[in-house]
Amino acid sequence: CLATLIIMLVGDTYTLINYVSFINYLCYGVTIIGLIVLRWKKPKIFRPIKVNLLIPITYLAFWAFLLIFSLYSEPVVCGVGLIIILTGVPVFFLGVYWRNKPKCVNRLIESVTCWGQKLCFVVYPQGGITEEE
User: Fold this and answer.
1) In whole angstroms, what is the distance from residue 30 CA to residue 130 CA?
2) Lowest-confidence segment of 21-35, 53-67, 112-126 by average pLDDT
3) DSSP assignment, residue 82?
4) Residue 19 contacts residue 80 (beta carbons within 8 Å)
5) Distance CA 125, CA 122 (A)
6) Does this model's pTM top 0.70?
7) What's the N-to-C CA distance of the chain in angstroms?
């Protein structure tokens, strides 16, 4: 979010749309690759919707063409898009991967979460208003 805010303040909206579209293409392709890997490694798990593997493989062929063409035509935009994605890596390690955090870090994360929930009217924080009230 911080990187997007900086880009919006410095750059124009067209460039921001290019960054986000590259990120979307990349995420869609990785999702389809995950689908194919799960179909191959865990063929027996329940799937409410099952399609012929030809459909995701065809999609991946077009996806690869779009991604390679994007990388060739606008490498700077793609690089900035990758940097935007990589800004989430430290957040992942600080918030999810690091299990034995000090109490002050846990309190900070909880307060930021509570503040965000209140700001966006998403979920009542713990100890907040319940359905009975």
Assistant:
1) 39
2) 112-126
3) H
4) yes
5) 9
6) no
7) 35
Burial 94-108 (b: 16+ CB within 10 A, else e): eeeeeeeeeeeeeee
* Ramachandran quadrant class, 121 (left: phi over 0; alpha: psi -120 to 50; beta: rest): left
What CA–CA distance (Å, rounded) separates 48 from 32? 16
Extract the tokens encoding 92.
């992942």
* One-letter amino acid for residue 112 of the chain: V
Strand (E) or helix (H) holding 32? helix 13-41
For the stretch 88-128, pLDDT in tens is 899 888 878 888 888 998 898 889 888 888 888 887 656 55
